[in-house]
Amino acid sequence: MATGGNAIRGTRVGAGPMGEQDHGYHAERVAISYWDALGNETVRYFAAGIPEEEIPETIDSPHSGLPAGRDKENPPALAKTEPYKTHLAYVKERRTEEEAETLLDDALQQLRDRRGQG
């Protein structure tokens, strides 16, 4: 006879004397709908006695990953994503030597002024 584990045959692991009502599955709940910018609706359930200020105004939509709000007519806007920049694009954005010297001189002068050495 092959045996394995400590479970008694015919029982569920984790099952105990408590029923669903003891786990809170039958507690009164309120359904709140959220909409993202693509029109996807997500329904979240909250306990009926929870104060209104504790219910979040926005969530992340599981459908699209975008922010979703409670206002169907005005959902949160799509996030603006920056396109990927190559190293060359960053090099082109660097300042010239003259601009760098001017910025450094200004920063040093501000430090001297703060210390009273100006």
From TrEMBL:
Keywords assigned: Transcription, Transcription regulation
Coiled-coil stretches: none
Lineage: Bacteria, Bacillati, Actinomycetota, Actinomycetes, Micrococcales
Keyword Transcription regulation: yes
Family: Belongs to the RNA polymerase-binding protein RbpA family.
Pfam families: RbpA
Region named Disordered: 1-20, 56-118
Subunit relationships: Forms a complex with the RNAP catalytic core and with free principal sigma factors.
Native organism: Microbacterium yannicii
Protein name per UniProt: RNA polymerase-binding protein RbpA
Protein's job: Binds to RNA polymerase (RNAP), stimulating transcription from principal, but not alternative sigma factor promoters.
InterPro entries membership: RbpA_sf, RNApol-bd_RbpA
UniProt biased composition (Basic and acidic residues): 82-97
